[in-house]
Amino acid sequence: MNPQPSDELPLTGIRVIDVATMIAAPYCASILGEFGAEVLKVEHPVGGDACRNFGTPTSRGDTLTWLSEARNKKSVTIDLHRPEGVGLFKALVAKTDILCERRKKEKRHY
Length: 110
What we know:
The chain is of the alpha/beta class. The protein has a single domain, classed as Crotonobetainyl-coa:carnitine coa-transferase, domain 1 (Rossmann fold, 3-Layer(aba) Sandwich), CATH 3.40.50. Strand 2, helix 2 and strand 3 form a beta-alpha-beta unit. The radius of gyration is 16 Å and the shape is globular.
C-alpha cells in the first residue's frame, strides 16, 4: 500500500496564541501559521498591537511591518487588564497547544 499525498500542512489542527509584541515571538507564530497552525493574535482593544503603527504605511493604512507580522493570523481583542478579559484569555489558552509570549527580562546582579 502506498500512502496517499495529503494537501494538509504539517501543523494543521494545532492552535497557537500570539500575545507577544515586537519581533521574536510574533515572528515565530507567523512561521507556525505558514506550516498550517491556526494562529490567534491577541491584541489590546484600544490601539491594537504596536506594530500596527510601526514603519512604512501602505495605501490601505496598514504598515509593512504589521503586514509581515500579522500574516497567517486571525486577530482578536481581549483586555487583559480586566477580570473578564483574563477569564476569557485563560479559557482560550486551555484550548491551545502553543502560547507565544514575551518573556520578562531577568534582573541581573553583578
